[in-house]
Amino acid sequence: MPASTGVATRALRPARTVVRWAVRHGLPAVYLDRGARHGDPVGRLLRDGAVRDEPYPLYEELRARGPLSPGSIGLVTPSHAVASEILRSDRFGVGWDRSQAPRPIRWALAFGDELDATGVAEPPSMLVVDPPDHTRFRRLVSRAFTPRAVAAFEPVVQRTADSLLDALELRSGVVDLVETYAAQLPVLVIADLLAVPAERRADFLRWGAAAAATLDPGLPFRRYVAAERALRAMHAFLREHMARLRRDPGEDLVSRLVSLPEDEALTERELHATVMLLLGAGFETTMNLLGNGVVLLDGHREQWEALRAAPSGWDGAVEEILRHDSPVQITGRTATGTVSVAGRQVSPGTRVTVLLGAANRDPDVFDEPTRFDVGRPNARDHLAFSAGIHYCVGAGLARLEGVIGLRALSERFPALRVSGRPVRRDLQTLRGFEHLPVQLR
Ligand code: HEM
């Protein structure tokens, strides 16, 4: 790029930031706030802090309205059957046709477009692209997550958990289990998978938290600016990291992605989107699984004791934690054609908010759904990892980390108790704890 163009680009950066925020967060916030004021459940869910802390009563209100009801931005479903149908349907996609958007929005999207400010839920992240691009990205990534590849990760996860627990042995009094364990384990495991230096983990945690915030629509301007700063730092790191692995490749997933043969090679933007998604999705969700699990088991002490006595039950326990308090609560799809769902005609372009956390408490599928029971026979029928072509590619690894992480913790600190008030993260799409004070002994 000529120097003058670079200077011009930098000079436009603040304006771009404002436009990007306005179109991605400012405008949705106006709609959602208006909806919330008129009692719209989706508006309340996404905009009301009290509902964010405890969304389950609102899900039940929605369930009473039926399996698919109108909200401020399209339709919304709390139903397991409808969510499964939509997530698996080829009449729904994750992308949206920008060419159909009003002209000012198209202009804003084009003007605000910049690789280094792109978040994990923006194209070309595989989370938000449809086939054939989705198929292409997914095929490349899923090679690293075959059952055999995940099983090979078991010693890494165990070793990482053990060394974190060794460090915890030296602590006394109340410790924050998120900071010392629940966040550390997944970030170290994903660092290993992507060959990123473990010393940078504090940066990843900071960047990941900012990236996670951008998943929620309607972010206030200041939080967006902070998030964008973190995204820029993350992209700068990725650029360096990929250049290093191009020069000196290893056996890891990123080395493989940057040295694909020409006919499969990803563009620079696609590489950034893919690695950034893996990095963020790899720990932002799993830390919630661990934190939510500890709090649930602390509240159901007899089940913690039963798992200590019979550790083979941890597989089922992790499924029940995922079901009962799902780390990802919300996703969405857009109808690509006219389609009939739950007796309703859905027209092309209609957005459906899919409440995974509500589907996982659907009484048509789960007996007494609010009861937490690690022995629940069909807990694994949950949609915590979604369904269809976007089904979580890292589900096997997440399950492994959940089982090893919680089992190892219970073995090392059998008397562990939550001590003080756990603090929820200020997020809607992801559900987990920011702080989790515990007494280890
Ligand atoms: C408890 C932990 C986790 C949960 C609850 C979770 C949940 C999810 C969900 C719900 C989706 C799909 C969203 C949708 O359908 O719109 C998803 C997609 C994805 N997850 Fe996970 N995830 C977890 C851990 C992981 C891990 C450990 C990794 C990677 C190492 C990962 C990588 C991905 C990727 C790359 C996608 C996009 C897949 C696609 O679009 O085809 N996740 N995850």
From TrEMBL:
| Listed PROSITE patterns | CYTOCHROME_P450 (PS00086)
Q: Which InterPro entries match?
A: Cyt_P450, Cyt_P450_B, Cyt_P450_CS, Cyt_P450_sf
CDD domains found in the cross-reference section: CYP164-like (cd20625)
Q: GO biological process: any one?
A: cholesterol catabolic process
Highest taxon, organism lineage: Bacteria
Keywords of this entry: Heme, Iron, Metal-binding, Monooxygenase, Oxidoreductase
Q: Which GO terms describe its molecular function?
A: cholest-4-en-3-one 26-monooxygenase activity; heme binding; iron ion binding; steroid hydroxylase activity
Return the similarity comment.
Belongs to the cytochrome P450 family.
Q: What is this protein called?
A: Cytochrome P450
Q: Which organism is it from?
A: Blastococcus tunisiensis
Per the UniProt record, the lineage of the source organism begins with: Bacteria, Bacillati, Actinomycetota, Actinomycetes, Geodermatophilales
